[in-house]
Fold:
Amino acid sequence: MPITVLGFAGSPRRHGNSETLLDWVLEAMGSEPGVSVEKIVIVDADINPCRGCNACERTGVCVQHDGMIPLYDRILEADCVVLAAPIYCMGLGAQAKAFVDRAQVYRSRKYVLGWPVIPEERKGKRLGLFLCTAGQPWDHVFDAALPSVKCFYHVSGIRDRDMQSLLVNDVDEPGAVVRHPTARSDATALGLAAVATLRERLA
Amino acid sequence: MIRVLGVSGSPHRHGNTETLLDAFLEGARGAGAEVEKVVLSTLAYAPCRGCNVCHRSGTCIVKDDAVPLLERMAAADVLAIASPIYSMGVTAELKGLIDRAQYRWARQFVTKTLDYSPEHLARHRGVFLATAGSDWPGVFDAAFPVVKALFSGLGFEYAENLVYDEMDRHGGIRGHPAALEEAAAAGRRAVESLSRG
Structure:
């Protein structure tokens, strides 16, 4: 069985800074033998915001009919889930926030219905990588987005300690991340380290 | 007359958050204000595209309900923003609107064609109202910087938070011992503080 990596590009801009970070991570991971990577672009995936209808608290599934529905199983099946998004107005951009909010279904399964979100034998094996860019140079610019991302990984069955972040600030205009002194090497190292960890855990 | 605009960011109609906002607006009306409520789920607008055109022009190129609403919000004296907490943040609908206010940020900090004086800020009061189902410590904390960004962009002093957690335990906002009375009092207070000035 290959190690499966599912990457989500959460920016409304195609091929911008956060998606470039994602491409670097996926390229590093996909260059390793036995690793299969796939990228999904959230703005092209037809993902609505959560309606807050709470139907999933009774049924464990979402009532909407959109691009998120086939992703629910695929997120849980992936060994590594990578989310890339820009910071807008101190938080995740609205498109990435909508995607994160739709993971409410997993929370309902786990905490309301008491269902297992992932099979027992896969618990503690999976990894989450969060790749984030911000135009502002402040160190604290990522602080308000991280709790939402932790929430996403937590309900998706990926423990806090199994989530790692690459946060790159002071990159605003498209292409700025390419000129960043360490972003590319950091992204590559993060991807390769994730593959090594997954190999160890899945051996 | 003091103008109060309330914006509900909940996808639920007449749920906990909108009910809390209604109480705030009733309090404001009772203090003599002209009150209006906007429910984001009834409007049509796209999220920000991140095209950065506004960083050159100071205007947004996307034509939909967002910019006219943001301009009305900026013209209010009291702006009440209401959202439930979803995944430790404001809803995607409200975040979508907040991101679209980028053109006002660009006017202040990129094109430098907009500047809010201390007197302007003192006469424009922003209030954030929120509800959360859970009892997690800090469940509202990550929403505050996002709301602050909106109030800064629109020229409002961030005057007050009215946030209520454990909605699940209370059986909703109407089951909360104090929330609706406190919201009504805050609505009155916001209007009276400006009427005196």
Remarks:
- The two ends of chain B are 12 Å apart (CA to CA).
